[in-house]
Design brief:
Length: about 220
């Protein structure tokens, strides 16, 4: 899997660079796996809070990996969860790409000079009303990381081949607030990559296979 091939399959960054606004409807969401194809009760058309994450694909001699973070347990939101570096769009960010790069530098100290931007995935709507733009970058080692220990407990890498393997896209369900919710889980070496992060990785697999809409 080369950066040129990945770039050919992804959406262009042009529209993201042009505006911080959400120019498209979310093509992926936390509600995709509901068997009846509907959204959760009470969730209708709504204004999404703009956010962006970086999907960092690291060029390793044994094959590309994806760099992920595990958030600290004390955070009010998404405590202990596995995620991509990223966060909400701030007023000074000219576009979502800047948000993804800035948040990556702040959270794990990965400088943008190591990152070649390849494109983006479909916007992802979370159950917490964020519209997340995943920006995909190719990362060339060597690089140093400086982790913000308030937000990030650990940084680790998972083989891209594992994350793209359909056999590892496990569907699970759990009851929350009296509603059954479905989500993807990708168990890897004792870790649970799940929820929105796993959903975005499934989207990455789809797009690299040439699929633009979920099947």
């Amino acid at each position: 899997m080369t950066p040129d091939l990945i770039s050919q399959r992804l959406k262009s960054l042009d529209d993201v660079l042009a505006t911080t606004g959400l120019a498209e409807r979310p093509l992926r969401s936390d509600f995709d796996l509901r068997p009846d194809g509907t959204r959760l009760p009470g969730v209708t058309a709504r204004t999404l809070k703009p956010a962006a994450v970086l999907v960092p694909i690291v060029n390793r001699p044994t094959g590309p990996t994806v760099l992920l973070t595990q958030r600290t347990a004390h955070l009010k939101k998404h405590a202990g969860q596995i995620s991509f570096p990223g966060g909400g769009v701030e007023a000074g960010d000219p576009h979502h790409v800047e948000t993804a790069l800035r948040e990556t530098e702040e959270e794990i100290g990965l400088h943008r000079r190591h990152i070649k931007l390849l494109g983006r995935l479909s916007m992802y709507e979370t159950s917490t009303a964020y519209g997340v733009t995943p920006v995909v970058g190719w990362v060339e080692p060597p690089f140093d990381l400086t982790i913000d220990r308030f937000e990030v407990d650990e940084v680790f890498e998972t083989p891209l081949a594992f994350l793209l393997d359909r056999n590892n896209h496990v569907k699970e369900a759990a009851m929350r607030d009296g509603v059954k919710r479905w989500f993807y889980v990708m168990p890897y070496e004792g870790r649970r990559i799940w929820g929105a992060t796993a959903g975005m990785l499934v989207n990455l697999a789809d797009m690299l296979e040439g699929k633009t809409e979920r099947s």
